[in-house]
Amino acid sequence: MPKVSVLLPFLNPGILLKRAIDSIIKQSFKDWEMILVNNGSTDDSVFIAKKAVSLDKRIRLVDEPKKGIVFALNRGLDFCSSVLIARMDADDFAYKNRLLLQYEYMQNYRDLDLCSGIVRYVCKNSSFEGYRIYVDWINSIKTYEQICLNRFIESPFAHPSVIFRKESIKKYGYYLNGSFPEDYEMWLRWLEKGAKMSKIDKLILNWHDLPSRLSRVDKRYSQDSFYELKMQYLDRWLKKNNRFYPRTAIWGAGRYARKRAKYLIEKGHKIITYIDIDPKKADRSDCTFYKNIPGPGQYFIINLTGKRGAGRFIKDYLNGLSYIEGKDYIMAAGIYT
Which pTM value belongs to this model? Predict the structure, then answer.
């Protein structure tokens, strides 16, 4: 049995698939198998996959006729024979020591269910600056504690950079199919059930941002889908961790923050006030100007302001008032690198 299974689903990636496969073949760590899952490709990628299989006995090709990344992933998981499963995407590139670093890390930290590493963002389109900022942010979130505290901001991992234990899949569940990003849902579900996750502070993957990637063309990866998903998990987290439940304050008095808070209200959370840095918004009867909020001990604060850069300001301000993240407030929006 190989020590690591590399799971790589694909749908019409063309010649990019060869680059991804070659980056695994050239790994310094040699004790692996690769499960390629064809999810209905109609281009030359199937030919590329079959050629790779013919040249390397460690590579297998599986077909999944049901269209959809979740069907392909779960089909591939059933064919992975190793105790460790590394994800890989057809348009990405793994650095030579990626598998070695992650295998050794998981061997050294037996309590970990999943680990990732630092990724390099690769994109030729300068208009995708927001995603570059997101990648800088996920690279800054490394420890289990940081991942837990920041899980409601955005997905803390680049999906093709993770490696996890097969027993964790059996314990916490497979990928779920629905109107939400399947990877983010799995991380939230696993963390809620007690899974331990961390990152290696080493560069392991080039993460390519192409116009055709699912996160840009599939509505499951829209901002609304992300918020609908994380509000469900945030609701349950707050009921366990908000010592003032159901009393809650929302940082953000604008339309989007109120829209996101509506789900919590429907679940029984009582919004005491909306906090805002804009004095005009703070003039409303249900609002508080941020300079007038009390010290910790009155209510729990949730940041739902998604404006770029606002998160860092809010976090620094609350810390300056002796609020403790995870105890007195939680960030649920606003990447703040």
Answer: 0.94
